[in-house]
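Worked example 4.2. Below are the chains of a multi-component assembly; read each line carefully before continuing.
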Amino acid sequence: MTAATDVLAPAAAPAPRRRDFEVVFALMAALLVAAPFVVYPVFLMQALCFALFACAFNLLIGYVGLLSFGHAMFLGSAGYVSAHAAKEWGVTPELAILLGVLTSGAIGLVVGALAIRRQGIYFAMITLALSQMIYFFCLQAPFTHGEDGIQSVPRGKLFGVLDLADNMTMYFFVLAVFLGGFLLIYRIIHSPFGQVLKAIRENEPRAISLGYSVDRYKLAAFVMSAALAGLAGATKSLALQNASLTDVHWSMSGEVVLMTLIGGLGTMFGPVVGAFVIIAMLNYLAQFGQWVLVIQGVIFVVCVLAFRRGVVGEIGALIRREL
Amino acid sequence: MANDIILRTRGLTREFKGFVAVEDVDLEIHRGTIHALIGPNGAGKTTCFNLLTKFLVPTRGQIIYKDRDITAAPPAAVARMGLVRSFQISAVFPNLTALENVRVALQRERGESFDFWRSKSVLDKWNDRALALLEDVGLTEFAYTPAVNLAYGRKRALEIATTLALDPEMLLLDEPMAGMGHEDIDRVAALIKKVSAKRTILMVEHNLSVVSDLSDRITVLTRGRVLAEGDYAAVSSDPRVQQAYMGSGH
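Applying the procedure described above to all two chains together yields the following structure tokens:
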């Protein structure tokens, strides 16, 4: 009788899941290589940076179960540092990005060490509070130029050789950064370390009782997520040639939650789809002015009510694959 | 060796704001036996269990495990000494497959590694051992089924397999039969019997038929104190025990 209560029949040895990932990844990469010949590259660069940002956020919420409500601080502060380094110090783009990533990683270490002591809503509130502190710092610090932000950031020459001033060249650089970051996240999730992260997400007391110091694992994941969000922010400030308060504002932290939810929380490709949907809406619905927010709200409500797993999550459930 | 005592308590006491939940309990658990802790509701079984698993701190008294005083040791350290507990609510990782559940425990052999750059295929070397453990608990055919889809009894079996992956010397089972149907009870009882071969088990359990089948020795608690101790025949014929159970409405 007990067998009848099992929802699924005994599953056979799993088909190689990697194959699925490789096919979809190749498809996505091909689409993104072809895209700038059809769509305005600057728009695509913006979408790619947000996609990487959402993927970094998803690493925490989807695979460790930590809802950070202050991820804008990593995006924004890395953006400021890279923009400042490229404009005022004249460093090469790769170095500017590296400085941005190190900054957000360091902030992630401090914020993470404080926040992981609490769980659930308290974790979210602490990250929000600390990101507001970063916001006010960025508002007041002289090098960020307050409300004006850092404008006309030079893209410079990659490794001192490749001129990124051309939109197409810059696009393929951004694409390389995005794909690299995306694959790194895939690797993290599917590593022995990632396996422990999933165990913590699934049942934290049990993971402790098996002898894992879960706080150290959470902190490591938090720093990785922060650094990757910083990579997105740093690349974005060079691609769009500016760094502004928008990127450190709390509403940006909300935006990334929205992107991840719409695309599909805990799926590899979901945040990418979500980011493209949201950025496309912001750009192409700009003519509706403030109504964009209302439209966004409606889409969000529909998403939560009708397809809770997000676009990619629902498709994955339909074809019984993990995307 | 059979009379060798693996875990003992001396004068174990726990008070909660004017209420004594466990009072002066002296337990002696012999190596290689199955020892049951029974008693009517409110007798202090769960408090006693939580004291032994270090989830509560005793007000007074001592806990000695393998001749070492562990009264002040943190729960994780105790687990590493080979004294591992189970949970009353089945503790599995729902969205991992049965195989992955067991592997998370086996993986601990690597120590606390943070190698996020490696493929998880390095964990495949534990697959054989994980499958062997699953076979021991009769879950071979469910190795690739997510734990969330398993029936309740099988989840308990999976939890036991995961615990066994740590190769504990002594198991503390918190009401292993709680919430189970007849069929699952038989299955898990057989499993506990099998597992006890090389280990010591202390369990808190309500189901008296299970207790009579499995236990070598039984301690009866009432009102936080030890009322009687002995094998099932001796304990069940003890008039004080009958009184305690009748008196509390059983």
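Take a moment to check your reading of the output against the notes. Residues 212 and 233 of chain B are 8 Å apart (CA to CA). Chain B touches chain A through 49 residues (CB under 8 Å).
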